[in-house]
Amino acid sequence: MKAFDNDTFNILIKKIKDLNLEIVKDPSLGNSFCIGHSYFCGQDNCSDEWMQSVVEYDILPMLEKYWFDETAKLQNMAYTERVQFCRCYLNGKGCIPPK
Questions:
Q1: Of 12, 37, 33, 7, which Cα lies nearest the Cα of 87?
Q2: At what angle do helices 77-89 and 7-25 cross, to 10 degrees?
Q3: What is the largest CA-CA distance in the chain?
Q4: Burial of 3 (0-12, 13-18, 19+ CB in 10 A)
Q5: Residue 57 DSSP symbol
Q6: What totals of helices (H) and strands (E) does the chain contain, helices first?
Q7: pTM of the complete model
Q8: Rg (CA), the chain
Q9: Mind listing the pLDDT tens digit of every residue in the chain (99 residues)?
């Protein structure tokens, strides 16, 4: 896999790793539910639009399915901060509030 020389991508991957730590700690999920590398493969160009698309249409809906019955977890400050980071940092038009 070709590495991207992109600070935004590196920050996004750090946030994904942080989310994976929360997923691993969740007794109803665990290691097999972690966000994998496949979401970030097969791309020749690392654009903000592509990263936003991965976050908006792949990562966030998956997390909402994982914790659909745990409103408190979805509203947890750590989760909200990560969602807000992903949506704000990757959206050139300003913040999209977390759901």
A1: 12
A2: 160
A3: 38
A4: exposed
A5: I
A6: 5, 0
A7: 0.72
A8: 13
A9: 455 777 878 888 888 888 899 889 999 999 999 999 898 888 888 887 888 888 888 888 888 888 888 877 766 645 666 666 666 655 554 444 444
